[in-house]
Amino acid sequence: MRVKLKAGPEERKFIQRIEELSGENVYACYQCGRCSAGCPMAPEMDLLPNQIIRLVQMGMQEEVLRSKTLFLCASCFTCQSRCPKGIDLARVMEAVRHILDPKGKDAFGPDEISPELARELPQQVMVSIFRKFAK
Amino acid sequence: MTAKTTSKTKDKRIGLFVCHCGINIASIVDVEKVAEVMKDYPGVNFSTDYVYMCSDPGQQMIIDTIKKKHLDGIIVAACSPTLHEKTFQEAARLAGLNPYQIEIANIREQDSWVHTDKAKATKKAIKIVKSHVAKALQNENLEPIKVDVTKRALVIGGGISGLQAALDIADHGYEVILVEKNPSIGGKMIQLSETFPTLDCSQCILTPKMVEVSRHPRIKLLTYHEVDSVSGFVGNFKVRIRKKPRYVDETLCNLCGECEKVCPQIVPDEFNMGLSFRKAIYMPFPQAIPGTYTLDAEHCLGLNPVRCGKCKDVCQKKAIDYDMKETIIEEEVGAIVVATGYDLYTMQALGEYGGEKYEDVVNGLEFERILSASGPTGGAVRRPSDGKVPKSIVFVQCSGSRDTEKHNPYCSKICCMYTAKHAMLYKHRVPDGQATVFYIDVRTGGKGFDEFYQRAVEEDKILYIRGKVSKIFKEGDKLIVWGVDTLTGKKVEVEADMVVLAMAMVKADGVMDLLRKLKVSTDIHGFLAEAHPKLRPVESLSAGFYLAGCAHGPKDIPEAVAQASAAAAKVGDLFAQKELVHEPTVVPVNDELCSGCGICIAVCPYGARSLDPERGVAVVNEILCEGCGACAAACPSGAAQQRNQTDNQIFSMLTAMLRE
Amino acid sequence: MKLHYYPGCTLKEKATALDISTREAMKRLDIELVEPEGWTCCGAEYPLTEEKIVGLAAPIRVLRQVREEGGDVVVTTCSFCYAVLKRANKAIQEDPLKHKRINAYLRDDIKINERTKERTTGFDDYNGEVKVLHLLEYLRDRVGFPNVQSRLKRDLKGLPIAPYYGCRLLRPQEELGLDEPDNPHLFEEFLEAVGCRAVDYPFKQECCGSYVSVSLPAAATEASYRVLRSARMNGAKAITVTCPLCFYNMDHRQDAIKETFLDFPGLPVLFFTQLLAWALGVDKKLLGLGEHSVPADHLFSESPTTEVRS
After folding, report:
1. Which of B267, B539, C70, C279 is the most buried (most CB within 10 A)?
2. Which residues contact B610 (CB under 8 A, 6 or more apart)?
3. Which residue(s) pair with B344 in the sheet?
4. Does domain C2-132 correspond to CATH entry 3.40.30?
5. What fold does the segment set C144-300 form as a domain?
6. Do A48 and B404 make contact, defined as CB atoms within 8 angstroms?
7. Of B479, B473, A80, B359, the residue nearest C231 (C-alpha)
8. What's the CATH code, domain A9-100?
9. Distance between CA B219 and CA B229 in Å, rounded?
10. Can you tell me the mean pLDDT for B520-542?
11. How far lies C308's CA from each of C85, C196, C303, in Å?
12. How far, in Å, CA of A49 to CA of A80, rounded?
């Protein structure tokens, strides 16, 4: 698959928006991969955490928005605590989730929880998962 | 050292040369207009503009005009004086004009490079030039200050850089004093097993230099000594050196080793990075120079009163003397080379790698000792915890380097190469072992370096994985390494028997105390600061101090040797001069106005001023004075006036600028 | 003395063990816990984008209420609540935009006077006047571990317990400042102070799976398993947590873990305040042990391993 790498206004807008929302400088990442090396959810992800920020650096908006990785992040901040450049990748992940289509389907919404499970789950879990993964 | 006053202000004939500097100045400042306007300015006798004043024709124009128009002073309106002041001073001198009658009006860095409005920039240029005319009219002829040079050098540090610098200076024909704080010279290089890219045995290539130093007729080797204090100035330093008591007379010791056998005290051996033990009376390594035992008082059972005394009893040569005391030696030298080396970043800082917790997580120097034939395992690769031969070793590059968040932001330069070397040597000795290197980049910029790395990968089949390790911990008998392969996008876990961390190179332990005594500046990491990063890499901004080796920053052996020889050459430059010449734009004391308040003494950063107790006035050592002007600014009575930068001159400049 | 205490919504229903044991333990230390009037859920997640400012309203309101009640410190035991409250508190103090927006939002809240039932509006700006402390740091810094030790009524005889920090207690270090994420000591000091032996194991700050146990249970099952396995391998008789979600993942879901990882025999999960309460002499019935899925009763027996000192 041939990728026509563009660095035009659309790509720049996307990158700027992510930086604005997250407050992080995505260009500071030198792709060492330490975030992925320590991420507890990485084995389940289709794109590794470092690949997510790589795609943002390259302005490849569509590909990054399609990934399942965004909805596997547990916001454990292991990546942030170990990054040698001090990048808070959890914020970048949240920023990417933020620009998803607000009218789109929830990645994980209330429909996915059965009444039995709802009775069992601590409130803490439901509040956090909906705030992270639902619109 | 006195200035000669010649021309009177009124009769002075000033020449103005306004430089275009190509488009650097001329694109913003209308240089022709400046030259034109200044033609009629009082004091200005000649005014012109030219495209590149620093060029040969430009300089020739200055020389010719000075002669033709009988000029007493000139102003070159151009770039910053840090670049070409010397050029134009030399041109003036060739034309027979005192070089201190030159004024550089900076209309580039202070005007054309920082403004965009052409009209205003041109007006500003005219003001700047006018101010310099006012100053030039009051400039006096000055002669450089001359001082003798003591043609002896002090080299601090007996590692490869210090040794090389000492040899080169001594071969030039000058006397060198080499001070080393450890019992033997050799530094870190003597601890290495083999060196890249040749895999030369490190001790084999270093010991000849060590022997040469010890036998050189012009090198005074002072091991187990430390520099206590330095006073004076370039060409004229007075150094106090502290001799630490060895309690063994090195001229009598014959290395029979009987003392070591009977000593009851066991101490972790620093030469072997704590992987083995030595006695309190010891020789750091077999080829130590000087070849003598040393008694480590800190770990001896007691010398005052004597608690043990066994070593002295068995010494047939009567070389052991418990009554040795610390003594101070005073030496006079003209130049000092600082070659104090480096240390490795502490493993305690990387808690997530378990460096302090697990014995089998080691740093580069520890691994060198394991690889070394003279090391604790005789060169067999065995892991520290149980002596097992590791079947899988993981090498982690960039441990504590390239980290702007918590550790050291810089690259330690040598780790990529020595990691490849370590992995290769491991594979040579344990051919069925698995070597894995985790890297972010592989930096192999030297001669033969990339070929060396390719050899490691292609011939020795070392697996290089691009990804920075997140965590290392022990599970049972194995060390688990959490890494990632960014190239295939896979998170990986490796089970290893041993891990070698390429720890960052940092400033030598305890070096800041010494550097403060020397008053030599460092960068924020504690590495010596060079005078100019590109063009003056082996000198300090403090005159008379030269830098060599890793004390200046991470580097490999070829670079350290090159830098040491360069520093020696610079010392040679200094010593080749009959006498030293010092800028005369210093700040003398006008005795009649001085009240002896002492404020100037307190503010002087160079320690150039002192109080004459008899006359109750300040006095200045013109050689130490660097003409910074702090005292002139602080002096309440105006007794401190800088030559060719007096208060009157400054006020005249201000008046010229502010008058419309 | 009275101390403001923020339990968080989960502690009132699904993790009552944490709430009860906390109260009972603090009673033994002569501290009366007071919940801020009309407190609400803190939101569980600190908003990570610069634009989701409204997510700060709930936690700030809680803190403001503490201030209104005359408190300058609020203590919490749930890691999630701790992280949200502390980070929100910091944001209000350091980010002028957030300060302005949230205070504008909360200013016109209605105050109801409990006595007169009078309703008024208008609150002063909240500027970070209340300090947020986790109970562990409160015990270390304000009560003092030696003080706690001197009040122990039961000798836990060095029971080996694995401290589990999880994520929210330590990270991000720059905002929580509780301890070094890769080399922490606080929880270990606590365990030593109550008479246990803190077990060192490499998974004490690795994520248990968090809320992903709902959306992709397999991932969280494995994550929790690795933590429990490491704790057990290093000799722990139980693992102790500060977070209801960690408790849910490692205790309630331990059956799922055992079904997937057949080699795992199990490990009891405790809240740290249960150990504290027990060591301070609180009755076993008041520890909330009934809420556990994995039996933990055997750790709290009045038998050779422990004795009541009066």
Report:
1. C279
2. B601, B618, B619, B621
3. B505
4. no
5. Rossmann fold (3.40.50)
6. no
7. B473
8. 1.10.1060.10
9. 21
10. 94
11. 38, 16, 10
12. 11
3-state secondary structure of B284: coil
Cβ atoms of residues C55 and A131 within 8 Å: yes
Q: Where are the alpha helices (DSSP H) in B21-117?
A: 31-38, 56-69, 81-94
Q: Which amino acid type is present at position A47?
A: L
Cα angle A34-A38-A39, degrees, rounded to a multiple of 5: 110
3-state SS string for A38-60? HCCCHHHCCCCHHHHHHHHHCCC
Secondary structure (3-state) at B248: strand
Contact B587, B620 (CB under 8 A): yes
How close B436 gets to chain C, by Cα (Å)?
Answer: 22
Neighbour tally for B348: CB within 10 Å: 10
Q: In Å, what is the CA distance from B445 to each residue of B105, B197, B538, B559?
A: 43, 12, 21, 12
pLDDT of C278 strictly over 90: yes
Q: What is the per-residue pLDDT across B269-279, written as a single tens digit (0 to 9) for each? A: 999 999 999 99
Q: Which residues contact B626 (CB under 8 A, 6 or more apart)?
A: B583, B586, B606, B608
Distance from CA of A85 to the nearest CA of B (A): 5
Digit-coded pLDDT (tens) for B80-96? 999 999 999 999 999 99
Closest CA to B365 of B499, B271, B469, B268: B271
Q: Where are the domains of chain C?
A: 2-132, 144-300
Tokens 């949230």 — which residue? C102
Query: Are B475 and C233 within 8 A, CB to CB?
Result: yes
Is B478 part of the contact surface with chain C (CB cutoff 8 Å)?
no
Per DSSP, the three-state class of B241 is strand
Neighbours of chain B (3+ CB pairs under 8 A): A, C
Considering only CB atoms, which chain B residues are within 8 Å of A47? 489
What lies within 8 Å, CB to CB, of A33 at 6+ separation is: A48, A50, B440, B466, B467, B468, B483, B484, B485, B486
| Phi, psi for B338 (deg, rounded to 5) | -100, 115
Distance CA C124, CA C283 (A): 44
Rg (C-alpha) for chain B, rounded Å, is 31
The phi and psi torsions of C246 (rounded to 5 degrees) equal -60, -40
For B490-530, the DSSP string reads EEEEEEESEEEEEEPEEEPTTHHHHHHHHT--B-TTSPBPP
Contacts of B484 in chain A (CB under 8 A): 33-34, 36-37, 42, 48, 50
Alpha-helical regions (H) of B25-159:
31-38, 56-69, 81-94, 118-136
- Tokens 């970070």 sit on residue: C128
B149-207 pLDDT, tens digit each: 999 999 999 999 999 999 999 999 999 999 999 999 999 999 999 999 999 999 999 99
**All structural domains of chain A with their residue ranges:** 9-100, 105-135
Interchain contact, B471 vs C202, CB within 8 Å: yes
Residues of A in contact with C50 (CB under 8 A): 20-23
The closest CB to that of B351, out of C180, C230, C233, belongs to C180
What pTM, to 2 d.p., does this model score?
Answer: 0.86
CA distance B444 to B442: 6
- Set out the domains of chain B in order of their start, with CATH numbers: 14-144 (3.40.50), 152-244+328-341+508-576 (3.50.50.60), 345-506 (3.50.50.60), 586-642 (3.30.70.20)
Task: Using CB atoms, pick whichever of B352, B490, B492 lies closest to residue A82.
Answer: B352
